[in-house]
Amino acid sequence: MDGVNDLQYANAGDTTVVADNPMLTKFKKHFAEAVESGQKWRDEAKEDLGFYTGREQWRSDDKRNLEDHQRPAITVNRIKPLLNVLSGYQRLNRYDIEFLPRTNDDVQLADVRKGVTKYIMDRSQYDNEESDAFFDAAVMGIGWLEVGYKFDWSAMDGDAFIRRVAPFNIYIDPESRDKYFRDMQFVVRARWVSKEELAKTYPEHKEEIEAQTAVYLSEEEEYKNQKLWWQKETEKIRLAEYWYKKTVKKKLFLLNTGETVFEVTPEMIAMQMVVQVTEAPVTEIWLMSFFDNVVLEHIESPYEHGEFPFVPVLAYYQGDDDIPAGVVRDLKDPQREINKRRSQELHILNTQCNGGWIVEEGAMTPEQESNLRSNASTPGAIIKTANGALRGGSMQRLEPQGLPAGAINATQEAMAELPQISGINEALMGTDISNQSSGRAIELKQKQAITHIASLFDNLRYAKKRIAFLLWGKRGAKGIVPQFYTDEKTYRIVGPNGHYDFITVNQQQQQFDAEKMQVIQTTLNDLSQGEFDIVVSDTPATTTQRTAQFWSLVDACSKLGINGNMVLDILLDLSDVAQKDEIKKRLQQEQQQQAQAAQQQQQVQLEIEKQKKLSRSMAYKDLQLPLQLALAAEAGIFPKQYADAFMQWSIQQYAQQMGIPMQAQQMMMMQGQAMPGQQITPGNPQAGNPQGPAPQPQVMTQAAMRGMVEANKPVL
Fold it and tell me: Same domain for 128 and 85?
């Protein structure tokens, strides 16, 4: 049984069967009030569901009136396709839950939390459960999801679960005024079950169940019309799971670390960590399961997060005295008009083939007249009249009138109103998008189309965030995962691209603390640690979203002139190409090879430059002093003005030794020509042959020396 078996492991409270239980009396009253106050919504919701299915689009009196006059009452269900489009859009545009770390130390834990959440959702088939609850909201105004933990005694292990709850089984505190029912003091899940099923779940109460059932089966007047707890036709009992809030005072311990806790260990007391003890009001969640006067269990909630385990998924609801409504609610009157007009059109078509006759008295026998009534509209029928009747014009056929143009226009207008009222238009369906439209254009057009129904998806995001809080809790209140997922375990996670990954949580490790000189026990990927912000991100979780982003990126690269190779790995992640992991692997190998080749080429070039510099350095030491100084000045390690002055002085000294007139010296230096004699070149720094003739004086112009300096720059 849903919601009953799941809690048996935690049934540590007392169970009583007392008809005069004051608390039970109060809870039964609350439940009766919730049933009465929610009846208006249930009537509307049942009719909404009937309109979607097409079974209840006619009012009983309207349909009976048409049938009495032998006229057709047809149903042209235009609501169902619209709701199917909305449901399909939601299924193709799902979003993921993201965990944002508040410190750098929690970055890895954030990824772990996302992975574990993904694991729980995959195990629960959450995508289908979410879509079903969303569809309930779209049709009837509200859907419900339950977040809990189920223990498997055979495996001695358990798993968190998320599942849809039938909306008609949930009863809300009628005093709640909040849009998301955050202020409700109780919520009841009530379902019709057989006494055998109930006795199997609660075998310790089998006798009480049998006794109460016998009372229902009696002929006592007070139980003949007992509809709140007993279905006479099916002989089923209504089981109520009454979840309620209870305020109690608890001791609050202030620790020397600044943290406040409700429980302390003997080690904390021994270490004198407790600074102050106070009492604080705390809200607890309790559960009583009962039917009529039989209490089956009364326990504190098995979940430590301090919240009800039910999450609403709403469509249109503003709180206060409003009634939850879905998309169907405002489409019912236009749908009724369509059905009536189409039925009228069909009636006209059925009757216009026989427009009637004008017949003179005595032109036909009674038998011929009866034959005319029956067969006049039959193709190929032969109608006989009296001799001479036709020649005298005693019979004249009345031509039928066609469908009034106004009736046709009114029907078309009624059909056009449905997408306008619902907001589910052609753009959302994708029927008015050109084949030449870019991915970005398609995305923008669809976003504009869903503006009318954006609140539905905002409410779904809120529900998803509430689910994450129930799974992980908040400061001072553990969620289901930190409470029950305490053992070391490895989970296989399916990523958004379909590939698998493995995460090990609560892994015990021993580390040596150098300061304390002792071995300490640490926990790797501790699910109870870390501070996070939970958001429902725009990360694509479906193929449709990835495809839209794929083409948007392609379009952006094309317009900006970006090389596709720069984003090829991202494009592959967004695509649904077969074996894309293998393609990415080969692409990465090729990129690595190209990088290695470029690195090797760079190393070769550096070696060439090194050899050139080394060669220049070796030639440097053989140059004459003026040239050495000039090269040192070019390298920035010797003042340039001193090098130039020494160069000019050397030239003048050389010229005086050679007996060159001063005027000629100046003219040769201005023209940048070499003076007579052997010139100094990089390949011949000594410019002399020891075995040849006596060396001639060597001289060169300042311009020539500078040219040599430029050609022989050393690494100094």
Answer: yes
Contact 50, 94 (CB under 8 A): no
Q: With contact defined as beta carbons under 8 Å apart, do 695 and 678 qualify?
A: yes
3-class DSSP assignment, residue 241? strand
Contacts of 531 by beta carbon, 8 Å cutoff, 6+ apart: 101, 102, 103, 106, 475
Claim to verify: residue 596 and residue 679 sit in the same structural domain: no
C-beta of residue 326 within 8 angstroms of C-beta of residue 47: no
Phi, psi (rounded to 5 degrees) for 698: -105, 135
Q: What are phi and psi of 177, to 5 degrees?
A: -125, -10
461 CB neighbour count, 10 Å cutoff: 15
Q: CA 161 to CA 124: how far, in whole Å?
A: 5
The secondary structure of residue 401, as a DSSP letter, is: P
Band of residue 514 on the pLDDT scale cut at 50, 70, 90: low
The pTM (predicted TM-score) of the whole model is 0.69
Residue 540 to residue 548: CA distance in whole angstroms: 10
Contact at 8 Å (CB) between 484 and 160?
A: yes
Assigned token pair, 113: 């939390």
Q: Which two tokens stand for residue 25?
A: 């009396």
How many domains does one find in the chain? 3
Q: How far apart are CA 432 and CA 624, in angstroms?
A: 87
Question: What is the rounded distance in angstroms from the CA atom of residue 646 to the CA atom of residue 390?
Answer: 143
Please tell me which of 144-153, 237-246, 543-552, 651-660 the model is most confident about, judged by mean pLDDT.
237-246
Residues 6+ apart with CB under 8 A from 209: 195, 198, 199, 202, 237, 294
Structure tokens at 165: 């709850």
Calculate ∠ Cα 681-684-689, nearest 5°: 135
Among 469, 487, 505, the domain-final residue is 487
Q: What is the mean pLDDT of the chain?
A: 77
Q: Is 709 helix (H, G, I), strand (E, B) or coil?
A: helix
Q: Is residue 53 a part of any domain in this protein? A: yes
Angle between helices 625-634 and 640-658 (to 10 degrees): 160
Where are any strands of DSSP class E within 448-549?
473-474, 477-478, 489-494, 500-505, 507-513, 518-524, 532-540
What 3-state class would DSSP assign to 325? strand
Q: Is 256 helix (H, G, I), strand (E, B) or coil?
A: coil
Q: Give the distance, in angstroms, between the CA of residue 67 and the centroid of all CA atoms in the same chain.
A: 50
pLDDT at 688: 39
- The CA R_g of the chain, rounded to the nearest whole Å, is 46
Q: ∠ at Cα 476 (471, 477), nearest 5°?
A: 30
Report the candidate in 462, 427, 429 with the shortest Cα–Cα distance to residue 313. Answer: 462
Residues 213 and 232 occupy one common structural domain? yes
**Measured distance CA(632)–CA(364) in Å, rounded:** 137
| Cβ neighbours for 111, distance < 8 A, ≥ 6 positions apart | 99
Classify 675 as helix, strand or coil. coil
Domain assignment present for 239: yes
Shared domain for 603 and 633, answered yes or no, is no
Q: How many CB atoms lie within 10 A of CB 592?
A: 10
Q: Which amino acid is at 313?
A: V
Q: What range does the domain containing 608 cover? A: 578-617
What is the structure's pLDDT at 50? Answer: 95
Contact criterion met (CB below 8 Å) for 22 and 308: no
Segment (H or E) for 320 = none
